[in-house]
Amino acid sequence: MSGHRVKREFSDMGYRMTRQRAAILEVLSGTPGHLTADQVYQRVRRKCPGTNLTTVYRNLGLMTQEGLIGKVNFGDDRSRFESNRGHHHHLVCLKCGRVLEISECPVHLEERLLKAVGFNLIRHQFEAFGYCEDCGGGSAG
């Protein structure tokens, strides 16, 4: 989703588009990958020097809650944020920390099971942990 479109959606939800909020969205949309709140804060401060960490945390939480950005945890108890670049999931290497994004969705494969138990799925998140090819993922071991 483009940064301008996200900003417009945020405004359409009734929120003011402050300089700090715009900077957060620009940082996330302009960065491939996944940033911690501190990394977002450091980059936002370059654009808006008066921004404090609390403001960044509060707005990341609000934007995540509203579905404008994605929040993931790769098993190290550190939330990371990303722009919503379409539906995707993550494969995380336990050795080197490399994150691979995959577009195939395992939940879509199980929709019939969800219907069978009468569960109305609203959203989901999927991170799989293992070893990348460089760290031994190709071995049968």
The shape is globular
Give me the secondary-structure category: alpha+beta
Number of domains: 2
Q: What strand order characterises the main sheet?
A: 1-3-2
Biggest beta-sheet profile:
3 strands, antiparallel
Let me know the number of strands: 6
- Total helices: the number is 6
CATH class of the largest domain: Mainly Alpha
Structural overview:
By secondary structure, the chain is α+β, with helices and mostly antiparallel strands. It folds into two domains: 3-83, Orthogonal Bundle (Arc Repressor Mutant, subunit A), CATH 1.10.10.10; 89-135, Dna Ligase, domain 1. The protein is 39% helix and 18% strand. The longest helix has 13 residues, at 53-65. The radius of gyration is 17 Å and the shape is globular. The mean pLDDT is 79.
Lay out the secondary structure.
Elements (H helix, E strand, L loop, with lengths): L2 H10 L6 H11 L5 E2 H11 L5 H13 L3 E5 L5 E5 L5 E5 L5 E4 L3 H4 L1 H6 L10 E4 L11
Parallel strand pairs: 4-6
Antiparallel strand pairs: 1-3, 2-3, 4-5
Helix pairs in contact: 2-3, 3-4
How would you describe this structure in keywords?
Arc Repressor Mutant, subunit A; Dna Ligase, domain 1; 39% helix; 2 domains; single chain; 18% strand; alpha+beta; three-stranded antiparallel beta sheet; three-stranded mixed beta sheet; 141 residues
